[in-house]
Amino acid sequence: MQAVNYLRMLKTGNMLRSAHSLFLIKNLRLSSVLSRNSSVGVKGEPAKPNIQTPVPGPKSQQLLEELSSLQQTGSVQLFADYDKCIGNYFVDADGNTFLDAFTQISSVPIGYNHPKLMEAFKDEHYLKQLVNRPALGVFPSLSWPEMLQKVLMPVAPCGLNCVATMMCGSCSNENAFKSVFMWYRNKERGGKIDFTPEEMESCMINQPPGAASLSILSFKGGFHGRTFGALSTTRSKPIHKLDCPAFDWPVAPFPRYKYPLDQHQRENCEEDQKCLEQVEEVIQKYQKKCIPVAGMIIEPIQAEGGDNEASPDFFKNLQKICKKNGIALIIDEVQTGCGPTGKMWCHEYFDLPSPPEIVTFSKKMLTGGFYFSEEFMPLQPYRIFNTWMGDPGKLILLKQVLTVIKNDNLISQTQETGKYLKEGLHQLENEYPNIINSVRGRGTFLAYNAPTTELRDKINITLKKNGVLSGVCGEKAIRIRPALIFEKKHAEIYLDTLRKIFKEF
Questions:
Q1: What is the helix (H) or strand (E) element at residue 64, kind and residue range?
Q2: Residue 209, preceding bond cis, omega within 30 degrees?
Q3: pTM recorded for the entire structure
Q4: Residue 166, SS3?
Q5: Which member of 88, 235, 243, 262 has the lowest number of beta carbons within 10 Å of its beta carbon?
Q6: Are the beta carbons of 376 and 358 closer than 8 angstroms?
């Protein structure tokens, strides 16, 4: 039906470019076949965006003024009417309906108000789990071990058979760092679990040997959170770090590729090698400074820092460096985890010869936490600990999310939709090379650059005014972060809106 309607548009002269016509006709025919077999369209979802007021509208501006009297609101874009949001569509306080390709900074897994999530707490047992929130490290419910085994462990990264739940991505990373430091010092002690009096006394005044002189290596452009310890590994934007004391921890360059990838294989291979060499150099530098690197944290795709990607070979060789130097490899899958790249975990693309030591998660997983191997289990209680240690209510929701992902084959759909969307972005890249370049990414976890920050911001703002929510990252990039229920028909709206904008620039 979509292909037929599109052909009618051609006859009425509404087509913008002939090349675009051929591209969409071919893919719409394929889409119509796939939709008969695999569509999981959301009941009640709007057919398209609908903007009724200026953006932001008068109600949003009034609410912003009210909130500004209470807190800093410079980051607030819109106020939502979550009663009306549905599927892939975000409705703001003024009644404007947006196609949401950003989804709360990539944290909405199966769209707004999904029926399975709305039904989750109709079960009185689950409702009581929500109401009686426990201090999980001390008084977990009798169903907690089973919840971990049946919800989190079936999707655990291969080779990691332990898990700790947390509240958010930042605290997941911080507790992963603590686990690494404890593991490293345990090795240095030869496995002894007793601490010396000197260690216990010195740690209380923040001095070694009790407060160990160790470090976590991170990468230029990386983002691992804004809480205090995580900030020492976040390297994306100065505003996140200014005025906060930081640890003397090493940073290494992350590859910066030239695009299209297939036309710059030699240059990008050289970039990999240059970065790997500098990783080894900085490890040796900090060894000589007597602040040895105990762990290394890296995103499979740097998100906040600009959607920078690196090759499987880069990650394989990085792991080799870690193994050679006795360093724990932490893969930060806070934004890439739970399917948006077309695999449950993005690092699956790298075909690593052995599992990373730790994988952190949050966002689309609804709960924070990290998977780890048994050797990173603390030897004493209260070392990886806080009051909540996660939230059973989030696991109840995640159980429904993972069931929907499996039953509706959403990982495969994300691959198909991502391929279609990426091809469309490449087409725009060919048509408007002065506006868009460097299309990249996996699944629907995609991005593209504008030539300047100013033009990038103009594109993003204009998308919003035309009813599409996207996000920015790095210096020049626009990132696309839809829910896993994002289909080809939604990709078409995104591409058509982008083409309309580019034509008007």
A1: helix 58-68
A2: yes
A3: 0.91
A4: strand
A5: 243
A6: yes
Phi and psi, residue 312, nearest 5°: -55, -40
Task: Answer left, alpha or beta for residue 149, where phi above 0 means left and psi between -120 and 50 means alpha.
Answer: alpha
Name residue, tokens 């310890």: 229
What does the block give as tokens for 386? 């806080």
Does residue 30 contact residue 24 with C-beta atoms inside 8 Å? Answer: no
If DSSP codes are grouped into helix, strand and coil, which group holds residue 329?
strand
Q: What is the pLDDT of residue 17?
A: 38
Return the axis-axis angle of helices 124-131 and 392-407, rounded to nearest 10°. 140
Identify the pLDDT of residue 474: 97
Task: Give which of 452, 355, 441, 475 is closest to 101, Cα–Cα.
Answer: 441
Going by C-alpha positions, the residue among 226, 228, 227, 233 that lies closest to residue 248 is: 233
Backbone angles phi, psi at 142, to 5 degrees: -65, -20
* pLDDT above 80 (res 7): no
Strands 301-302 and 308-309 turn out to be antiparallel
Q: For residue 467, give the nearest of 432, 498, 428 by alpha carbon.
A: 498
Question: What is the per-residue pLDDT across 357-410, written as a single tens digit (0 to 9) for each?
Answer: 999 999 999 999 999 999 999 999 999 999 999 999 999 999 999 999 999 999
**Coil vs helix vs strand at 392:** helix
Is pLDDT at 39 greater than 50 in this prediction?
A: no
Residue 332: how many CA atoms within 13 Å on its side-chain side? 30
Radius of gyration of the chain (CA): 24
Q: Hunting for tokens 């198909």 — which residue is that? A: 416
Report residue 27 CA to chain centroid gap: 28
Distance CA(426)–CA(428), nearest Å, equals: 5
- What is the pLDDT averaged over residues 261-281? 97
Q: What is the 3-state secondary structure (H, E, C) of 343-355?
A: CCCHHHHHCCCCC
- CA dist 296 and 360 (Å) reads 13
pLDDT at 34 over 90: no
Which pLDDT tens digit goes with each residue over 438-497? 999 999 999 999 999 999 999 999 999 999 999 999 999 999 999 999 999 999 999 999
Minimum mean pLDDT range among 35-49, 396-410, 423-437 = 35-49
Task: Specify the amino acid at residue 450.
Answer: A
> Catalytic residue numbers?
223, 332, 363, 387
For residue 505, CA distances in Å to 10, 436, 459 come to 23, 12, 9
| Reduced DSSP (H G I as helix, E B as strand, rest coil) percent helix, strand, coil of the chain, to 5 | 45, 15, 40
What does the alpha-carbon distance between residue 91 and residue 75 come to, in Å, rounded to a whole number?
18
